[in-house]
Amino acid sequence: MAEQFEQKERRVIPNWRSFNVTACLGELDHSGLTFPSKPSEVFDISDYTAIWRQNKRISFAADLISATFANGDDFTDDAKDAARFVIKQAEKCPPPLIRLAEIIIGKNPHDNTSPPQPGEDLSLSKVYKSINVLRDRLRSFPQNPIPHVELSRCYSILGEKYKAIKNMKAALYLSPENRFIVRAAIRLFAHFGEPEYIHNIVKKSGIVRYDPWVISSEISLADLLGKTSSFIKRGIQFIESKKFDPYSLTELCSSIATVELNAGNRKKARKLLQSSLIAPNDNSLAQVEWINNIDYLFDLDLKRYNVNCNSEALALNSYFENKWNDAFFYSKNWAKDMPFTKRPVLMASHVAISLLNQPQLAIDILKSGLVSHPGDPQLINNLVYSLVLVNKLSQAESLMENVGDISDLTNTTNICLTATSGLIAFRKGNFSMGKDLYLKAIEAGKLTNNPYYRWIPTLCFAREAILSKSENASELLKIVDKVPNDLEIPSVTVLKKEVLDLLSFVKPA
Amino acid sequence: MKETNAAHDLLGRELKSGWKVTRKIEKHETSTGSFFSVCYEVQKDKRVCFLKAFDFAKFFQLAKSAEIVDVMADMLNAYKYEKQLSDLCKTSHVTKVVYVNEAGEETIPEYTIPVVPYLIFDLADGDVRSRLEFSDGLDFAWRLKSLHDISIGIRQLHKIEISHQDLKPSNILVFDTSSKIGDLGRSVCRLVNGPYDEMCFSGDFTYAPPEIMYKYFEKDWSKRVFATDCYLLGSMVVFYFAGTSMSALLQKNLPDKFKVHVYRGPFDQIRPYLLEAFSISLDEFKNCISNAFFKEELGWVVERLCYPLPENRGHPRNLCGIQNQFNLERFVSKFHHLHLKAEYLLGK
Questions:
Q1: Checking phi first, is residue A456 left (phi over 0); if not, alpha (psi -120 to 50) or beta?
Q2: pLDDT at residue B243 in the model
Q3: Strand, helix or coil at B104?
């Protein structure tokens, strides 16, 4: 049986994307409404233009192109003329000059430094290639903290905790007061189960005193650790000060709202969440969606918000509204966006296996999930279950041996693994062993308060018993009939219907 | 349109100082000229020089009546300042900077404003853009020689507390086999009061270092101005081999949100992003040089001279201790060494 996608506690821990994508999303913009500096004015470069008109040579074109580029994106006809001249004589020009010329005439608007589109597919070979490039760049310029952060992210995607942490610590050492780096570090250490370490650093940093994006993360970290943040008061002052733009405050409102809701202050939480929706980002939107599902506060129409990379919110929304195809689509996008996290993989696989009844759809996403979480029992269980259902028994069996540390398995994962072992035994023809394992899972499921784990092992057993014809059909019907019809758990309903259909085929009424 | 003021009527005349005006040099012919000046070629005792005549009439065309006095005062100050700096260079044996050889004034009585003050400089073959060929392998040694000359020029200026502030291709003048730095007009000097003393940066903004572009101004005068010259020298190295300034490369490699005409935040937050753009730019620069030795050496020189955070700019041995962080002596030696090595490889 597959693991259920559980609605675990959610906090406003920053989402961690590559530097270019994060910059593109506006999360690194200046947050205040007053600005320390004005953007530079555009300067007169008519001298360069005039000289170029009289000296049509590469070096004069190069000088005009340089001046134009450093002077903003407003490219004059003369600059375009110089750029075309350079491109025409490309064999005599150095590559950086040609690239600038191409950008000026719009031939190569997406230079290799342009940010990739959020949610772009990330293959393993791409990750390894990125690691090589980043390591080369660090070798030639080790003072740069950004490749350390990017490397850390790549290693997180590969599940290499030690290297990921080592690189993040280097980045923090080089630039301890930068928003991008501090927020990435918060996500990394929270992801690897070491929030205490980063919390101690963040609460003593200088940036947490003035940056709403970092205060928000500190509050969520403290909440995650079961502590009360000493920055909540400052956060509220920031929100009330009207000195920050709403986008910069969205996560702060959301994180304080979560704390207030946990403390039982629904009214305050609702007000703060509504403030977070003035200009939401993907994280605050997903938080509202999640909170609204566990404790309905107000109507939320996601279509009203034009938020980039909001796959998580859309996936949660589709899941809560039983739109399974959409939930699968968005959870896959969510996994592409955050390839180091497990939750989107669990959601996508649960939806594909238990709700869409298309286990083959779950296989690829589970395999990629196992890259960042090697040996993860939940993911292995779901993958083994999917493989057995598509008749890849030998693959499934060998994979089952890869289950990592089982000493700290949760009870529910244990139930799933036992039931899945029962399934393998049934499919191998070892019915008595299969039955024993299923009964063990059923007994363990009865002890949980969760109807999913209470009834799914029973239904799985019934299905296998019917398919293997190892049990009396009327006995099985009695067992299946015990599964209540009024459960509001779609996966139980779907499986019960499947089993009843099988039964009707075996023993027509 | 026929020019009717005295500054435009010097051609063919013999000046009181003995110089014969032989040719009028049109604006934009090879170099950027001041709006308020008219340029000529002059000869005396078989020596050919360059004359810059100040065109007072331009002020009356341009300035509103209330501002004429101010504008003229500015011009006279600039004239005086350039002459004072030149005197300082002359007495300090500066060899790699083009400065005023002679200053004087000519009176042409038939004009309303009959006085034409002028400055005479060495006449260059042109600026470096007229000489530079990016693809020519033979040019490699020449480029290094030129950079060596420029670094000496900047070093000589720094020794007498002058910061050039406007080092760019149009201000690098070529004389046969050597190069010299031209246009001291935008310089600042600790010893002489000048028109740009109050400005944080007096040069061409499109070549300015990132701290100036992002309005982070070091309060210490010498740190600020010499850090700027260091960057501009490094940017010249980039231009010689990559055909673009370091500032243009940095702007290209920054995400749009952090480009200089968009970003409105503090310099502190943009530091790591500048380092990221710089690291990419440095790789692009290095890839323009095929020889592994020169690639590494010149890459290192550019890294040290153009480092985007001014407090870390300069030679690493000057960064520790009490030495002047922006002392260019070691870079002068480095350019000399590289030039000799390139000549040696060329001769092999």
A1: alpha
A2: 95
A3: strand
The arrangement of strands across the sheet holding B47-54 comes to B20-25, B37-44, B47-54, B115-122, B102-107
Q: Where are the domains of chain B?
A: 6-122, 126-347
CATH number of B6-122: 3.30.200.20
Burial (CB count within 10 angstroms: exposed 0-12, middle 13-18, buried 19+), residue A357:
middle
For residue B279, the distance in angstroms to the closest alpha carbon of chain A comes to 6
Å between B54 CA and nearest CA of chain A? 19
Of A39, A57, A111, Cβ closest to residue B262: A39
Structure-block tokens of residue A110: 């997406």
Nearest Cα of chain B lies from the Cα of A378 at a distance, in angstroms, of 39
Q: Using a pLDDT cut of 90, give the percent of chain B over it.
A: 60
Is residue B231 within 8 Å of residue B209, measured between CB atoms?
yes
| Neighbouring C-beta atoms of residue A122, cutoff 10 Å | 18
B31 contact residues in A (CB cutoff 8 A): 51
For residue A67, what is the nearest residue in chain B, using CA coordinates? B206
Q: Distance between CA atoms of A239 and A233, rounded to whole angstroms?
A: 10
Name the CATH superfamily housing domain A116-309. Tetratricopeptide repeat domain (1.25.40.10)
Residue B251 burial by CB count (10 A; 0-12/13-18/19+): exposed, middle or buried?
Answer: buried
* CATH fold for the domain made of A337-506: 1.25.40
Structure token digits, residue B109: 């009585």
What CA dihedral angle connects A455, A459, A465 and A469, to 10 degrees? 140
**How does residue B37 score in pLDDT terms, banded at 50, 70 and 90?**
confident
β-pair type (B115-122, B102-107): antiparallel
Contact of A278 with A272, CB cutoff 8 Å: no
Cβ–Cβ under 8 Å, residues B323 and B287: no
Strand partners, B106: B116
Class level of CATH domain B126-347: mainly alpha
Asked whether the predicted pLDDT for residue A73 surpasses 60, the reply is yes
Domain with CATH 1.25.40.10 in chain A: 116-309, 337-506
Q: What is the ipTM of this complex?
A: 0.91
Taking every pair of Cα atoms in chain B, the longest distance, rounded to a whole number of angstroms, is: 67
- The single-letter code of the amino acid at B201 is F
